[in-house]
Amino acid sequence: MLRQALPQITRRVLRQPITATIQPYRTISTSRYSSTDTETISTNSRVGKPDIPLRAGNIPTVTSDENKTSIAWPDGRATTFDNYFLFDHCRCSKCFHGQTKQRLKTLSEIPDDIHPIAVEVDKTGVHLTWSTSDAHKSSFPLEFLRRSAYDPPLASYRDDKESRILWNSKISQSPPTIRYDEIMNTEKNGQTSGRAILRLLNRVHDFGFCFVQDVPATGEQTKELIEKVAPIRNTHYGGFWQFTADLSHGDLAYSNEGLPAHTDTTYFSDPAGLQIFHMLSHPSPPGTGGTTLLVDGFYTASLLSTLYPTSYSLLSRLIVPAHASGTEGTMLRPPLSQPALRHDEKGQLIQLRWNNEDRGVLGQGWTPDEVKGWYQAARRYDELNRSEDAEYWVQLQPGTMLVIDNWRVMHGRSAFTGSRTMCGAYVGADDWLSRRAALTKQYEIRKKSILDDDWSLGW
């Protein structure tokens, strides 16, 4: 049944970003539908109508009382803010440090009965005078108020995550790639080419991986390249590592066994953000095998949510213990286990934690039906990951470095013979995402928003 349904569903999924909204312990809400499971599925993945951009002259009407401030927008919608919320988000120089971008007042400094005593509205925003002894003044851009609305939520603004491109095995025809010399070339000021690094990180963000071609096949120059992109993360494996199949660490990665598609470091509270590989040597003959496997875990998760929404919900809700115990002196298990599929506050999939080899003991606090359901869900997801449609196999060569978003794309390999030397490193998720955001701010020319830096912080 799955093989028959997969081609049609694949075409549909590849045309759209993954936007399934998961509500733990309640009915799944998704933009797709399926008759393969029996639960009720809402077709509304976001609250409210599509957002309508503000135009010059579209001035809202604002009213306020002792508890709340209400805004009636020209498009007919309305939203309400608690007065305490608005005062807390004031960005004046008394409340917010312009250089450090941090709040200057504590919550206990805000009077419980804070409320506006005067309200003005113009095309630049809403301007409030507060009931404080100094008649404190705050101004809020209209776009900020629409984006931060919560009663009810209004904005369906484009999230950065929606630029992600789902892919299947056909990515082999044109995989994302950048050249080594683009990154290592310097600009006139002698600094590393940030634009090329941004292109690399954008491709990793959008596709979940990127190749870097023509890298010198040495550990030293590979390490230098990685450090140009983002700081290397130190773990129990070390920082930058270079290894052969000698089981120097108690992990199957240090053997010559084949490995199914998986994400790394599920046994960390904060799994590695980037996984970076460079094969330095694997002489052939006599060496054979060792083909690298890549699977877009967000693509297969999207298929799962379409085919089996109940299974998707279970993998998003039930926590799965993980551990690393094979290396002497190392006993890793996160104090707070997580589900295989993790979502942000808007219900978008942000992280996959999938490693059968490092999975711990399941079922603590689960019902018998949940145990049975989880195993069925995991088998279904595993079947999708192992399908010819999902698997992208590529033979790495010396000179090609592979950068993988470990929160999204699974990697594996076929078994191999002969002497094979690999090098690479981990990079923290916060580190590479911060680097990308900073370079985006520095280099990208984008449509100017009325939100300046102070107002765009925190989303």
TrEMBL record:
InterPro entries documented for this protein: AlphaKG_dependent_hydroxylases, GBBH-like_N, GBBH-like_N_sf, TauD-like_sf, TauD/TfdA-like, Trimethyllysine_dOase
Catalyses which reaction(s): N(6),N(6),N(6)-trimethyl-L-lysine + 2-oxoglutarate + O2 = (3S)-3-hydroxy-N(6),N(6),N(6)-trimethyl-L-lysine + succinate + CO2
Annotated Gamma-butyrobetaine hydroxylase-like N-terminal domain residues: 63-146
UniProt region (Disordered), positions on chain: 33-66
Pathway connected to this protein: Amine and polyamine biosynthesis; carnitine biosynthesis
Family annotation (CDD domains): CAS_like
Alphabetically ordered keywords of this record: Carnitine biosynthesis, Dioxygenase, Iron, Metal-binding, Oxidoreductase
One GO term (biological process): carnitine biosynthetic process
Any GO molecular function: iron ion binding
Cofactor: L-ascorbate; Fe(2+)
Recorded GO CC terms: mitochondrion
Enzyme Commission designation: 1.14.11.8
Coiled coil, from the record: none
Domain of life, source organism: Eukaryota
Enzyme class: oxidoreductase
Record carries keyword Oxidoreductase: yes
Domain TauD/TfdA-like: 198-426
Family as reported in the entry's similarity comment: Belongs to the gamma-BBH/TMLD family.
Function: Converts trimethyllysine (TML) into hydroxytrimethyllysine (HTML).
Protein name as it appears in the record: trimethyllysine dioxygenase
Organism: Kwoniella dendrophila CBS 6074
High-level lineage: Eukaryota, Fungi, Dikarya, Basidiomycota, Agaricomycotina
